[in-house]
Each structure stands twice: as C-alpha cells, then as structure tokens.
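Feature request disguised as a bug report, sorry. It would help if multi-protein outputs had a clear separator. Right now it looks like this:
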Amino acid sequence: MTDPLRAELLRVAKRMVWFKPPEVTLRDPVFFLNHVMTWGTVEDIRVARVHYDDDDFRKALRQAHPGVFDARSWAYWHVVLEMDPAPPLPERRLPESGHTLGASGTDGAIRRYQELARRRKRTDGSVVDAFLAERRREAAEE
C-alpha cells in the first residue's frame, strides 16, 4: 500500500474508532469495517471500498461485533451486499448468567429499513449509489 493510501486509511480509522490507535484498529478489519458501515461518511465509505472488497464487507457482517451496528445500518448493508434478509443484530452474552445484551425489539425496524433499501434499489438502480447520493444530500443540507 502506498503512503498516501495508507495515510488516508489511517485517518479514517482514527475518526471511526477514536478510542484505539488507528494502527491497532486496522489490525481487525471486521471491527474497523463495522464502524465504517455504521458511522462512516460518504468519504469514509469510499476510502474503505478502495481498500476492502465486497467479500471483506460481507465477512464484517457475518462476524459483526455486538453493539456496533444500529438497525438501519444493519439492514442497509445486508441489502447492499445481497445478504438479506438480515438476521437479528448481534448480541453479547454475559458469562455465567446466560443473559444477553443487545438490541431487543429491533427486528421490526430491521425489516422496515430493508424494505426501504430494496425499494430504493429497484427505483434508483444501485443501492450503494443511491445511499451515497442520499448521504451527499444530507451533508449539503447541514
């Protein structure tokens, strides 16, 4: 990886996961991509898609860390990567007690967001292009 590309990726890693050094964040691509897929700007997603392919993004969904994704991002990326229907959001199991910490009650939201993403994909062509265009419009309005 050339220095400018590496620097660009390090900047995104630093912004996405502020509580870890960017070099440490990038050692766990699943963790890094989970954060980009949930909190990333259009530019962050563009940078990530230069460095990681669809299979990397799919792996990030299959091995998602509990507590990172929200229902909207979870549903959206499952549609974009043609992995829908999305399963429930990942949950963290507490040792000993068997209790889980997770986003209970989000299944309905996930289904609604997936339907919106599917509808957008049918009308706008590429759901990724539509998503990026929507993010650009939102940024311009701010």
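(second protein starts here, but nothing in the output says so)
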Amino acid sequence: MCADGARIHDLRTGTVHKAKVHALGGGGSDRAETVRCFAVLLAVARAANRGAIIRLHIDATQAGRSGPRQALLDAVDVALEAGAVPQTYRQLDVARIGRARGLVQPGRAEPAA
C-alpha cells in the first residue's frame, strides 16, 4: 500500500481508493484554528455518512494543544456514531477482496464466517 493526501494505492493490484486526509491544526490565530477544526468535523461527518474512507491527521505539535486534540477525538466519535469501522490499510485490502467475492457484510472489516 502507498498513500498520498487524496488516495490509497494498492501496489499489488493497482487498485486506487479515494481517501482524503482530514488534517487538524495548522497554526494561525485561535479563531482560525477553531473554524478549521469545526470544518474538519463537518467534513468527517459528511464522509462517514457517505460511507467513505476517513483518514485523520494531526501534527505532533498540534496534538499538544487542547483545541486540535479535542477536535480529533470528536472527529473519531462522529465517524463511529455514523457507522464507520476502524481499519488498518491491510484490513481495507481484505475487505475489498471479500466484498468482491460477496464475503464481507457492509460495515464490517473481516470476512463473514
């Protein structure tokens, strides 16, 4: 797997998944930071409701600040409430193969028994 800011590439199969990175923080004034964090929360909620892949990013220096850190936790909560399932890149590949074979139920990362 190889990922950039907008996609995840499976180098073995050539499959490309659309998966934008939602970045939190970024400096600037406190007011601008608040607006950016709120915008990320809205974007994550929309993506989760569409069933899209959600990837979150926070810079280590921003993770020490209460605003971006809380926004990250809120974004995870919003995504989980909308039915998102936490997955690794490997699980993403397994789920894709399973769906193609009819083995994975929507909203589940692992093949059905």
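Even a blank line would do. Unrelated, but nice: The longest helix spans residues 30-50.
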